Write the structure tokens for this entry.
Amino acid sequence: MTRTLHIDFVSDVVCPWCVVGLGGLETALERLKPEGITAEIAFRPFELNPDMAPEGENIVEHIGRKYGATPEQSAANREMIRARAAEAMPDVDGRPFEMRMGEDSRIWNTFDAHRLLHWAGEMEGDAQARLKKALFHAHFTENRNLTDAGVLTAAAEAAGLDRAEAAEVLASSRYVEAVRTDQAQWRARGISAVPAVVIDGKYLISGGQPAAVFEEALRRIAGE
């Protein structure tokens, strides 16, 4: 059996569970290769905080305001997700993904990051996946400001993309409407939390699942 699945990975680059989910998905697909099951992955935009101010917000204050978590609960959650991410996905340098988010870290608006991802998605090969991981690294490992054009173009360069062209995209209004339309379409389809992994346009796997969950689900879907 040879089967190529189309996967829409709906996510945000400031979502730690999206790191875990992507790692689980990629590991599952690697395990399924000997069975002839492969996938084409498209990264779709979802802003967790579309109204976030340009200066961002302290992570502890943000989590407390949005989810009612205490500083202690927030710290415990960060530690748990840090361990899950390191286990689930390699970083851009091949080592276990390292989340260095602390009590002084900030959450940012990600609209421009999604515009760059849309740009990368028009390229052939795995350019979009490379940029996605570079943006994860910039935010979670380096604690960089994702509203800063210099940070975003550096991530593009780290992903092997043209930094000058990335700067041109950010300095213009390119992909503004495309990203807004794409986000609205996914919300209209009922996506309200990420990661949301949509297979062949009709099967949904929600959350930062481990590889075994993805593997079982994808094998079942491929066999239908």
The chain has a mean pLDDT of 96.
